[in-house]
Amino acid sequence: MQVPLQITFRNMTTSEALESYIRERAEKLDHICDTIVSCRVVVEAPPKHQRKGGLFHASIDISLPHETIVINREPDLHKSYHDAHVVVRDVFDTAQRKLRDFVSRQKGEVKAHEEMPQGTISELYPYEDYGRILTGAGDDIYFHRNSLINADFGDLVLGAEVRFVEEQGNDGPQASSVRVVKP
């Protein structure tokens, strides 16, 4: 990091153990991405209640060249953020994932999704709940009415363009997901 790590504790006394843990986790972030300009961590204790304690809150602001990553861990009814270490762990886990995604994008390692094959409906058998797709390569693919994603089987017409996911069935190739291409 070009700027030293900033750690702020709000509504609580500084905890050496928690501060040490934050520095350790921040160092790991620096190993994931060596272009981090600055990192600011805020840990906030819940307001003091007489009957029951509240939940901790933590956030991280990571400044990178041309981008800023902000992660907040708000208290949530489904989370156990009664312990500051737990909320800090979760916020750093999320920061690590976001930084890895950032580094992957910078290196051009973004996943390329394979295009779904395309074809036209060549046969329909409404009383038997299936049809057939003819692909551009001349393959004949079976599909069942339950494979349709964005249309009703009764609304299909011969010649309609579809995209599909092909898999090997017991009796040959079949489409497990069929999406009608909207013009």
UniProtKB/TrEMBL annotation:
Molecular functions (GO terms): nucleic acid binding
Protein name (database record): HPF/RaiA family ribosome-associated protein
InterPro entries: CSP_DNA-bd (IPR002059), NA-bd_OB-fold (IPR012340), RHF-like (IPR036567), RHF/RaiA (IPR003489)
Domain of life where this protein originates: Bacteria
Gene3D superfamilies linked to this entry: Nucleic acid-binding proteins, Ribosome hibernation promotion factor-like
Pfam families membership: CSD, Ribosomal_S30AE
Domain CSD stretches: 116-180
Taxon lineage: Bacteria, Pseudomonadati, Thermodesulfobacteriota, Desulfobulbia, Desulfobulbales
